[in-house]
Amino acid sequence: MMSHVPPPPGRYLAFHLGTSYYAVPIREVREVVRLCPITAVPNMPEHIRGVINLRGSVLPVFDLRAKFGMVAVDYDDRACIVVFDRQQDRPRQGGAIGAIVDGVDDVLVLAESQLAAAPDFAGTVEADYLLGVATTPERVFSLLHMKNILAADGSVAMPDIPSKAAMGGTESL
Amino acid sequence: MAVANDILEAVAEVLGRLAEELAFAEPGTDKALLPVNALLMDFEQVPAGALPASLVSALALPRRWVDAALDATGQFDEATLQRLNAWHGWVVDCLMSESAGLPLPDLPEDLAAASAPETPPAASVVTVPAPSPPTAESSAAAPAAPAVPPASGVPTMVLRLPADLDLLGEFHSESLDLLRSIEQAVLTLEESPTAAEAINAIFRAFHTFKGSAGFLQLDALRDFAHELESLLEVVRSGEVKVNRAVIDSILAGADVLAECTRQVGLQVGGVNAGQPIPVPAAAVLSLVHSALHGAPASAPALTANANSGEGAPPATAAAAAVTDNFVRLDAAKLDDLINLMGELVVAQSFVVESREVRTSPNLELAHATRKLARITRELQHNAMSLRMVPVGGLFRKMTRLVRDLAASQGKQVRLVLKGEDTELDRQLVEKMGDPLIHMIRNAIDHGLETAEQRVAAGKDPTGTIELSAAHRHGGIVLRVADDGRGLNVDRLRAKAIEKKLLDPGVPLDRQAALELVFLPGLSTAAAITDLSGRGVGMDVVRGHIESLRGHVHIESEPGLGAAFTIRLPLTLALIDGLLVGLGGERYIIPSLAVRETFRPKPGEVSTVHEQGEMVGFRGEQLPVIRLSRVLQRPGRAALPEQGIIVVVESGSAVRALLVDEFLGKREIIIKNIGDTFASQTLVAGGAILGDGSIGLILDVDSVVRSLRPEGSGVPGGQVRQA
After folding, report:
1. DSSP state, B681?
2. CB of B680 within 8 A of CB of B632?
3. Measured between CB atoms, which of A37, A43, A48 is closest to B682?
């Protein structure tokens, strides 16, 4: 399923994985923290890296590179964890999840004229993961549909099949 | 002996602050009481051996006065304040002498005198009429006055203060425990008048009262306790059955003992010290008399006492007074408080355990962090206790259920409740309701026989279901036991094979066969009527209990009954855990599931059939589970003797879990790790460790099941239990 509607104008957080540039709507981002040691959880798909302590609560962290099937790299000190609010209606209820990125670049203010619906062909990223694209004088950004990307990691052992049904998740513990 | 100057300085500083606080204290108020209490606690932090014993005991002197004030009225009274001030002056002198290397000054006369009014010689204490009748003064100090007002002829006792101050303090706290056990046992007796355990408990309590009172030469109290003991002796021998009159006597007797205990507590705390304490025995003794001989005694107080013990839940005067002090509050607010408390504990241990703090040469910092740790611990303890409620409320709901079910089934059933004041987390109490109802319903529907069947089997026509609770191993144990026909193991096995839940070729020992009852699918509607045992949703019950991080264990003897023992953590928010290392990672194993840890000796672990490893433990061979294999993480211990064996239990299965190292025990606040990890079951949650990193809490059941032979579907495999 692809979106044929251009994403809404507004503020987007830009980051990169290698030479690929991405942005996400800033209201979905709770915060950005430095990459810190991650406690691995056994029996999980490779892209789910584990958990970190985010000021007293346990934050699951996944590796966006692995999620997108990109080669693994040794993260340097520019690497960050972007913390997303998965379920805005259930804050504090384990709704947040962190994504490791190579580096966070900027906050972009994107106007309608800079935004377009996702093209049919979207390179390594599955079309369902894209909101659209944004063009700035410097470069082109893929705007990520975090909800679809994260949906797959709701409660599942099926990491690469986005499914809205999984969003509800099952209560654990 | 040379004393480090900094410790003397620290003591002097605390004394200075004590002086300030004492200046604010006022008799009859609680002003400064808590600060004074906290400052006195600082003295207890002085490392052992750092100060001469004489000085340590001098510093500890006011502890019991303040404790008594806290226990009794929560306020300072004139006498205590005077003593504290006198003590303060003296102890400052002591400190100066100590730093000057001089011997300590003696305890001043007036300080001793302030707490020691003239004590008559012990011999004159015996049941004499009160020399001066207690006046409005003493009854004002005692809002919960004894039911029978002291009158002439009421025996009294006089405490030997200050000679027996320590002993009386111990007597006071011991008596409070005894009174609680009496009260609890009476509750049991009311439900089941033949409960020998309860009768014995009351007998022992009165007996202990008698002994202690005799030892302290409180003869009036000793004689009174002796009478009560005699009553129980007769009941114990079976000469007199427990009836309303006996219970009323016990309660009235306990009330008198409670009042005397309270007075002792006040006097130990300096209130009315030296005043004779009345022991209004007569009314109770006439009750005892009528209970023993069935003839109503003529004492007018009898009716009043009998009324007080009737109908309403029995409670001592003290307990009744307390009910007014309850505060209703929003459970969500309480949960918030507890969660914040958890954060505080973690933040605190982060500071205290940090390398900078631990290795700092700064003594003041060390002192402050110790204090922080202590206060946090107490605060945490208090906060947790706010959420604890007695299990009795839940138990009593079952009384109704049993009565209704017994009536509808035409069976005679007696429900015996034990350990009703065992406390556990409110959430757990709420969540245990359904499983208990399930088990009790099963016991009545399937476990207990009809009266005719029971008589034919040579049993009491009335079946008994015992519901008990107790604290054990840092958790709580609930038990539902009946004396019915027990589970039919052969039919369970046949049913499981018929339902294709069990391979007929699999040998099962008795326990494993009993545990078939927990298999899902065995509990279909057909099974309920077919099986003369149980099977009604026991899989649901087990699932429910395990979701509360508990375990259920079944025992049954044919013809004698069945018992389900449920072990639960005390609270859902916090667990005791063992921190273990595997490779560079750390995991937490809930203590409730752990029996023991040990390092295996070379050769102790043997390989069986070239497949599984086994280790000897207390005369049994336990299968070894290498945690590294289950988690598929690298471990360091290639040979078992390089690691540590943690003996864990899951249901009736006992396994030896091999980890790299044992890192200690921790109290852990459980954090949800979220939906993301719902696809795996090995990890039940996360906990933030002292260094801020996350340790994963292992689900022992899941770890143990991961080793179960494929396809057999047998809980616990073929492993023998302990």
Report:
1. -
2. no
3. A43
- Which residues does chain B have within 8 Å of residue A56's beta carbon, measured at their own beta carbons? 343, 346-347, 688
pLDDT band at B523; cut points 50, 70, 90: low
* DSSP H/E element including B181: helix B165-191
Between chains, do A155 and B679 touch, taking CB under 8 Å as contact?
yes
Instruction: Please tell me the number of Cα atoms within 13 Å of B555 on its side-chain side.
Output: 11
**Residue (of B417, B419, B412) closest to B399 by Cα position:** B417
Q: Are B114 and B274 spatial neighbours (Cβ–Cβ below 8 Å)?
A: no
For residue B137, name the pLDDT band (cuts at 50, 70, 90). very low
More reliable by pLDDT, B242 or B353? B242
CA distances from B424 to A29, B175, B336, B430, B566 (A): 40, 24, 18, 10, 13
Two structure tokens written together for B44: 């207890």
3-state SS, residue B208:
helix
- pLDDT of B532 > 70? The answer is no
Q: Give the gap in angstroms from C-alpha B674 to the nearest C-alpha of chain A.
A: 5
Q: Mean pLDDT throughout A10-30? A: 92
Q: What is the pLDDT of residue B3?
A: 57
Q: Is the peptide bond before B162 cis (omega within 30 degrees of 0)?
A: yes
Q: Residues 312..351 of B with a Cβ closer than 8 Å to A: which?
A: 343, 346-347
What one-letter code names the amino acid at B69? A
**Amino acid in position B481:** A
Distance CA B216, CA B220 (A): 11
The phi and psi torsions of A60 (rounded to 5 degrees) equal -70, 145
Q: Helices B219-237 and B244-268 sit at what angle, rounded to 10 degrees? A: 150
Report chain A residues whose CB lies below 8 A from the CB of B630: 42
What does the pLDDT read at residue B354?
78
The pLDDT value given to residue B237 = 79
Q: What are phi and psi of B189, to 5 degrees?
A: -60, -35
DSSP letter string, B415-454: EEEE-TT-EEEHHHHHHHHHHHHHHHHHIIIIISPPHHHH
Q: Residue A117 phi/psi, 5° resolution?
A: -65, 165
pLDDT computed for residue B277 by the predictor: 86
The model's pLDDT over A80-104, given as tens digits with 9 standing for 90+, comes to 999 988 655 444 445 788 999 999 9
pLDDT per position as a tens digit, A132-150: 899 999 899 999 988 888 7
Cα(B314)–Cα(B221) distance, integer angstroms: 22
